[in-house]
């Protein structure tokens, strides 16, 4: 299976590396050029025991890649995971879904075949419906489904 992982924070990077280690072809997408340079050099910007070795092994195998080209990654993917930040909003503490919705909009324009869009970010109930509407409005011809794959608490 070909996977595009949008976001290389803790959740996206660990998930992408693990999917590649399971044998899937993974492209992890990020907009930060410095972070991409670090990842491509085999350096991990977070602490997770064994992650660097796993990442390097899967990069060397050709199953794991890092890119800033979201449209190319999405157009080649069977499944696209949205693993972007959802920081707490100032004032009310609710999840800020700005990055999730922006990723959905970008994904919509890149879908060219059936794709499963998976929300991996920490989001409230109802977000999948909102993402589905965003993609459908931005690309009425898109053939896709939206699923949820929440992460468990860190350390669980």
Principal-axis shape: globular
* Average predicted local confidence, pLDDT: 93
Question: Would you identify the CATH architecture?
Answer: 3-Layer(aba) Sandwich
- The helix-and-strand class reads alpha/beta
Fill in the CATH topology.
Rossmann fold
- Can you identify the CATH superfamily? NAD(P)-binding Rossmann-like Domain
Q: Give unreliable regions as ranges.
A: none
Rg over CA atoms: 15 Å
Number of helices: 6
The number of domains is 1
Secondary-structure element order, N to C: EHEHHEHEHEHE
Strand proportion: 15-25%
**Class, according to the CATH hierarchy?**
Alpha Beta
The helix content, as a percent range, equals: 25-40%
Distance between the termini: 27 Å
Q: In what order do the strands lie side by side in the largest sheet?
A: 3-2-1-4-5-6
How would a crystallographer describe the biggest sheet? 6 strands, parallel
Notes on the structure:
The longest helix has 13 residues, at 98-110. This protein is 40% helix and 18% strand. It has helices at residues 10-21, 33-40, 51-61, 70-75, 98-110, 127-138, and strands at 2-6, 25-29, 64-67, 79-82, 115-119, 144-148. It has 156 residues and is of the alpha/beta class. The protein has a 6-stranded parallel beta sheet with strand order 3-2-1-4-5-6, with helices on both faces.
